[in-house]
Write a structure and sequence with these properties.
140 residues, mainly beta, three-stranded antiparallel sheet, 1 helix, 7 strands, 7% helix
């Protein structure tokens, strides 16, 4: 069976423009903007979210809950520096903001929501808001 790959000339042009292969050593990848990888688990009374934010400080993370919508954002600083003696051979850095917004099936009780950050993992415990039961009104 043959492998078919799609050629995208714009992708090839941009890749060659921003990343020069001659600057990278074999098997090395350039610093890239990070993304927030997440696991979302539903329990009977709450949602539990684990978000990976390696290298981010706790004070640079912001979490917002609005109904059933959750937003996580963080300021990211990555730096890579290589020296050989006193000569600087290469220095790369990335400073920016990453964010992720998602919706859950049920509204969150934001008064009881909790967030913990430990070893690059943000853990959110988002209790489900009690569903208001419908009430039948008597017509007078």
């Amino acid at each position: 069976m043959s492998n078919i790959t799609r050629f995208d000339p714009l992708d090839e042009l941009l890749r060659g423009f921003f990343v020069r292969p001659m600057d990278l050593k074999a098997g090395e990848t350039p610093l890239a903007p990070p993304s927030i990888r997440m696991d979302v688990k539903e329990q009977e009374s709450a949602y539990v979210v684990h978000a990976e934010l390696p290298g981010v400080k706790k004070e640079d993370i912001h979490v917002t809950v609005d109904g059933n919508q959750v937003s996580i954002s963080a300021e990211v600083r990555q730096a890579s520096e290589e020296k050989e003696g006193e000569r600087m051979l290469r220095s790369e850095r990335y400073f920016g903001k990453v964010s992720r917004t998602f919706q859950l099936a049920q509204d969150i009780d934001d008064a009881r929501a909790e967030a913990r950050f430990n070893d690059g993992i943000l853990e959110l415990t988002l209790p489900k808001r009690a569903v208001a039961s419908s009430k039948r009104l008597a017509i007078q």
